[in-house]
Amino acid sequence: MDLVPALEEPLKQPLKSVLGPATAKVMAEHLGLHSVGDLLHHYPRRYEERGQLTHLADLPMDEHVTVVAMVADARLHTFASSKAPRGKGQRLEVTITDGSGRLQLVFFGNGVHKPHKDLLPGTRALFAGKVSVFNRRLQLAHPAYELLRGDSEETVETWAGALIPIYPATAKLESWKIGKALQTVLPSAQDAVDPLPDSLREGRHLVSLPEALLKIHRPHTKADIEDARSRLKWDEAFVLQVALARRRHADAQLPAVPRKPAPDGLLTSFDARLPFTLTEGQQKVSKEIFDDLAVEHPMHRLLQGEVGSGKTMVALRAMLAVVDAGGQAAMLAPTEVLAQQHHRSIVEMMGELAEGGMLGGADQATKVVLLTGSMGAAGRRQALLDLVTGEAGIVIGTHALIEDKVQFHDLGLVVVDEQHRFGVEQRDALRGKGKQPPHLLVMTATPIPRTVAMTVFGDLETSVLDQLPAGRSPIASHVVPAADKPHFLARAWERVREEVGKGHQAYVVCPRIGDDIDDPGDPKKARKSPEDEAEKRPPLAVLEVADQLAKGPLNGLKVEVLHGRMHPDDKDAVMRRFAAGETDVLVATTVIEVGVNVPNATAMVITDADRFGVSQLHQLRGRVGRGSAPGLCLLVTEMPEASAARQRLNAVAATLDGFELSRIDLEQRREGDVLGQAQSGSRSSLRVLAVIEDEEVIAEAREEAAAVVAADPELTGLPGLRTALDALLDEEREQYLEKG
């Protein structure tokens, strides 16, 4: 039987554990660490110098923190309670300081005896616990602690200057316990197989992997940390780039039907009908797409466009080119409202060219069909028939397009709108409906963090539309601090009335629906952060707000509601009335976030704006200013001025540049798992690499990876790199990469 290589050895096994079984169990369940290698790659979040105390003033709320501080004061109080009615209850209050601020620690009951003995004024220690608020002051209740004592052999200087690694930890396992566990497995770092080719490592003066692991966990100097981080960043960037380069290489080997538009076909007729000229950007991006469609391997392109930059027009022209070439095109939209809207606007733009096989249809016309889950049986049957016979050149639909029953005559192009709303499996299921792999065009208005990350990592060819078409108006955005300045909120509703008075319309957006049937904004589930009293109440709801506005500040105006749990026919009817100008104010959830196009809507009020992400706010704001009148977006919040949430809203109000905002978003939320499907930062496969800061490393790693893969696609001469790839690409991620 083969011996398990040292780094693959499980931390917990039936006969013997590398660590104690309880520690190994917590590491597996709470930190996802299962092997010696996993633990060695669990890097410190930061380092503390024993002599240099941390900033207590900057502690984040509700987070598990580790701080190095000195005890300033410790007092034992007795009190009466239900458990100790005779005044025998005990509470130990310890104040710790670091020069920047003070923090209170509290211990109760029998838990007071040991800390009362240990935590004497002047004692330095590591403290770990969850930051909470009591009586408007920050505190740690029952924190774990580790006293920092200099050994007698150590001089005071070396003791004070030593670097203490602080690890990402959990309530069940403090940072210093993780540090002790690492001490146990650190000798195995010598067996780490280096994934970087020798020539690359030497050419860039990077330390070896075993040396980097020793230096990141046990640095003697700050230079050690720098050496280790530089090396480990390269590992992450290079291994990931090799995975992406291999996928690009494999894609280039796949066969696809080249789709070249006929010289005087549907596309030419469509362009001749257009009442305006395409922007320079639209023409440039269309050329990039047409060049890709003409090649014999599948296009794999991301179309990033500012809100309102005319992406739908570019996508429609690509679809018409494919229909010209004898194929079919499918557009996948995330919601029924959006699918219906796309269908309506595409049919309007095409006019008689969308009436294929109908009386009055043009000679080159094709059929444009809609397919959604809520369609009636007869309409659905007809749509399916039109697809399988090839009668319909273009289909626009929701997830309903992915079902097994849906078959195409010859699927040539898949357009995915708002790519971040779809799982990879869903996109793949649709791509699998082509006789040969169809071309793929992915569109997004504001790159959300993972999309930006993927783009920076360059696994899709990218086209950017950054010009707004002529006739689009600027949008003024303002933060409305409802708690500090209630009269600002009253003025916001007056502004809505003024816009309606000028013959325009307005949106009011709320975080939740309000009938409280397991709503994601349910107060029970709402994120609670004692940053402010505002967080204590549930987020505002469409049904309640619409009622209050209709009876109060917007009395006399025609107010309607729109949300995701309405029947699709009702949603469509509400949208039609709003588009026709019959409704003055639409109170909605984020169901209007993408693609909804009502040029007469000029104002938007977003309530509890702090409950939305940066990209989402930018998307929402893009619903106004779509006509010739200027747009107005008011971001209402009760968050205090100094809070991070207010800073986020100020950033949105300060710029209309979606690419700039996506960078802000990315810096705040981290990349998410660049290879997985999570979009928040909690599951990042990146431990030391930061997408925004390390763009240069990533770009250089991409070049190196492309050269390595071109020379040896199977990586036969690089066993260390193959091992690292296998570790990165567990089954789920391998499929993810294959599917794109």
Question: How does this model look, in words?
Answer:
- The chain is an alpha/beta fold and 740 residues long.
- Helices cover 37% and strands 18% of the residues.
- It has 24 helices and 21 strands.
- The chain has a 7-stranded parallel sheet, sandwiched between helices.
- α8 packs across α23 (719-728).
- The longest helix is centred in the N-terminal third of the chain and has 32 residues, at 222-253.
- The radius of gyration is 30 Å and the shape is globular.
- The two termini are 38 Å apart.
Question: TL;DR?
Answer:
The protein has 740 residues and is α/β, with parallel strands linked by helices.
What's the helix and strand layout?
Layout: H1 21-31, H2 36-40, E1 46-49, E2 64-79, E3 89-97, E4 102-108, H3 113-118, E5 124-134, E6 137-141, E7 144-147, H4 156-161, E8 163-166, H5 175-185, H6 198-203, H7 209-217, H8 222-253, H9 266-273, H10 280-293, E9 300-305, H11 311-324, E10 328-332, H12 336-350, E11 367-371, H13 377-389, E12 392-397, E13 411-417, H14 424-431, E14 439-444, H15 449-456, E15 461-465, E16 475-481, H16 486-501, E17 505-509, H17 542-551, E18 559-562, H18 568-579, E19 585-588, E20 601-606, H19 614-621, E21 631-637, H20 644-654, H21 658-669, H22 695-711, H23 719-728, H24 731-739
Parallel strand pairs: 4-6, 9-14, 9-15, 10-12, 10-13, 11-12, 13-14, 16-21, 17-19, 17-20, 18-19, 20-21
Antiparallel strand pairs: 1-8, 2-3, 2-5, 3-4, 5-6, 5-7
